[in-house]
Specification:
By secondary structure, the protein is of the alpha+beta class. It has helices at residues 3-14, 25-62, 79-87, 121-127, 153-159, 199-202, 210-217, 235-245, 255-258, 260-298, 300-308, 313-344, 346-357, 378-404, 408-412, and strands at residues 68-76, 92-107, 110-119, 134-137, 148-152, 166-177, 180-194, 205-209, 222-229, 250-254.
Length: 415
Amino acid sequence: MTPYEIAIGLRYTRARRGSGRNRFIPFISLTSMAGIALGVAALIVVLSVMNGFQEELRNRILSVASHIELRGLPVLEDPAPVERIALQNPRVRAAAPYILGQAMLSAGEINRGALVRGVDPAVEDRVADIGRHMRSGALSALTPGEFGIVLGAELARALGLRTGDSVVVIVPQGNVTAAGTLPRLKTFRLVGVFEIGMFEFDNGLALIHVDDARRLYRVDGVSGVRLKLDDLFAAPAVARQLVAAMPVAVEVRDWTQSHANFFRAVQIEKRMMFIILTLIIAVAAFNIVSAQVMTVTDKQADIAILRTLGASPLSIMVIFVIQGALIGAIGTLIGVAAGVALALNIDVVVPALERLFNVQFLDKTVYYISDLPSDLQRGDVVTIAAIALLLALLATLYPAWRAARVNPAEALRYE
């Protein structure tokens, strides 16, 4: 690449209008540039929003779930040795026992199924953040022997319960009587309501004290131990380490396994959106091909003169590659700037659009996440910019190759 090749390529790019037969060349070039900018900006914003949804979903799930669960097969009669082995791992920060069971909750004539989790309020906040999502009451109100219960907001609403009301918990483990096996039931008092923002938990989870759960389900020991790590993304690696250290009768599951379907669905949606929006950039790249082919046809006389002055076919190719690549580069830079600015201010732009058009994109009565979260990641921006530049560069190769094959004698015959 020499200065004269760069100078000619830049001059062709700066031309305000085509000459002779092809006056639409600058318009097509601007359209290509705008298409690339639009595609890049849209891809950056969409991926940032998808990243934000993924992070919001993960935070809400892990506010109730744990990073790693050590489950007994079927129960852990003594969880202390398991907790001691787990806490020896430098990445494990806290451990809490739990009992898990199913039950039917009855209030008046309304019945709802629920997952009942027995927890120790003294250590539960160390492994989960459910205490921060309490709408009324507190986890500390769960005291052994008083049979208090904490329900999800949707579940309490469906049962028509308020704090202080009574609810009957019916468990499938029955009592054997002369009349047959009857389900076991116990009356609990509602001492708190939490709202995570996930239907799975708000409509189907109930918390009671672990000692009350032992009496209710008549089990010796606990269902397992929940762990919290210093880095949630280290959970798979730590789980593999704990598998080798734990007794055979313990099942080790990390959060990526327990809630794999949620995160797999978000990841698939993110990939599909990436592919679909990349096609916008590809369409704009095809416009570069059209503009370049028209430019080559329009500049055949100029090409022939350059060839007669000693320019090599490679130099001719470089000239047109520079012209097309510059269109792609400018469009990519504009798209990156616009996309980054919009992704960083999505919390301001979306409410402004809602007020302007008097609409609500995420209705609180339909969606638990009523605001568009955004998580701009540098890796996504770099990848999108690289793909856009690569597509723009590839789009210039065929027109540049055609320009290099122009025969000077044929081109100048009718000039």
